[in-house]
Amino acid sequence: MSHTIASDILQYENLLREAGVSEKQAKAHAQGTASLIENNLVTQEYLDHKLKLELALLESRMTTKLGGIVVVSLTLGLSILGFFLKH
User: Fold this and answer.
1) Where is 76: in which H helix or E strand?
2) Contact between 33 and 4 (Cβ < 8 Å)
3) Which end of the chain has less Cβ packing within 10 Å, N or C?
4) 25-84: per-residue pLDDT in tens?
5) Range of the domain at 4
6) pTM for the complete prediction?
7) CA-wise closest residue to 26 among 37, 11, 41, 39
8) Residues 27 and 47 reside in one and the same domain
C-alpha cells in the first residue's frame, strides 16, 4: 500500500471512530476499503503503457491495409495502362 493511501485509510479509520463506530469495526471497514482501492486502482503508467501498445497495434494494422491498397492500385493502374497500350 502506498504511503498516501495508508495515510488516507488511517484518516478514514479515525473519522469512523469519531463518528461512534467501534475501533474493531472502523479498522475492518478501513482495511476492506483499502483492499478494494488497491485491487482496482489503475496507475497513469499502466494506462500509458496500454495506450502505446494499442497505438502500435493500430499502426501495424493501418500499414498493412495501406500496403494492400497500394498494391491493388498499382496492379489496377498497370493493367489499365497495358490495356490502352495494346489498343
Assistant:
1) helix 44-86
2) no
3) C
4) 999 999 999 888 888 888 889 999 999 999 999 999 999 999 999 999 999 999 999 999
5) 1-41
6) 0.51
7) 11
8) no
The tally of domains found in the chain comes to 2
* Same domain for 50 and 34: no
Cα(30)–Cα(16) distance, rounded to whole angstroms?
9
What span, in angstroms and rounded, lies between the C-alpha atoms of 61 and 35? 39
Lookup result for grid cell 485509510: 9
DSSP states of 2-70: -HHHHHHHHHHHHHHHHTT--HHHHHHHHHHHHHHHHHH---HHHHHHHHHHHHHHHHHHHHHHHHHHH
Residues 35 and 61 in one domain: no
Residues 53, 79, single domain; the answer is yes
